[in-house]
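SEQUENCE-TO-STRUCTURE ENTRY
===========================
What this section holds: a protein sequence and its matching fold, both as plain text.
Tokens: labelled as protein backbone structure tokens, with as many entries as the chain has residues.
Question of interest: how does this chain fold, as expressed in backbone structure tokens?
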Amino acid sequence: MEKPDTTRDKSKELFIPPENWDMKTLYTDLASAKGKNLTPIEKRHLCALLCGHSPAEIAEKLERNLNGLEVDLSNTVYQYVKRLVDRENEKIKNWRNICQWLEEAGYKTQQLTQPKLDNRMPTYAAKIHIESINITKDQEIEININVKLPLPSPPNSPKEPTQ
């Protein structure tokens, strides 16, 4: 009986392209640096690195040998990035250099944009009081809080008559 391939299921979240990176442009530019399109495996490795996963975590998720994965990264993704950002003569001291260099090159987009608030929108002060913080017998953190949020009055609510 054939063993089911669970690698895809285990590593699915590892290979989702991160939303805060311009992946379309990055794939195109890395393909130019490589001389042809990135392979699906190279894209998976790149996505995992940009999501903050170390080569050790990637190897574990893919059930691969760490040394083999590091050699693959060094011969593929790392080389393309070095060419792209014009750092071919620099040594990669840490896998995080890849993310840093690509961010410095402008491939990382804004993290999360704050919605623009309408100046007419009133603000209300919320009150938060932490009652207690405990560690339970089951090694869970339990936080008891009290939150008070004032409700705005409806815009067309009748006003009290003045005398």
Q: What stands out?
A: Confidence is low (pLDDT under 50) at residues 1-9. The beta strands are 127-135, 141-148.
